[in-house]
Amino acid sequence: MKLRTLFLAAALAGLAAGAVTAAEPQEVREGLMKKIGGSMGALSAIAKGQKPYDAEVVKTSLTAISTSIKAFPDQFPAGSEANSEASPKIWENKADFDAKAASLGADADMLLAQLPADPAGVGAALGKLGPHCGDCHQVYRVKK
Known about the structure:
- By secondary structure, the chain is mostly helical.
- The chain has one domain (24-140): Four Helix Bundle (Hemerythrin (Met), subunit A), CATH 1.20.120.
- It is built from 6 helices and no strands.
- The longest helix is centred in the N-terminal third of the chain and has 23 residues, at 25-47.
- The protein is elongated.
- The model is unreliable at 1-20 (pLDDT under 50).
């Protein structure tokens, strides 16, 4: 009985692992963008005074932006254009797309190294990060 339970648990774990790794690139990149958007929203709430300054929230948000944007360009393999808000221009000019992501990542890392210390600093950080988002979305996102 124990061997059967162990086998069943191993089989279920294998299925679960397969389900995690089988995610479509469109789903992965959507999840990454949601992390970035949520982090920008948390920073914005602090900058606007809607939430109190919290260094841990700032650090967590900047870390999420940094790690997510660094993983983002890898989620655009050939053939993943369908069912997406991604513009075909990504695949036509991948080097520029990758450079834009790298630039946002570098700025997020710089801000992590010198963590904004108050709401005004968070607002200045958003002033540095926000244009990256708009610049990329203007060129590489198709609105539905």
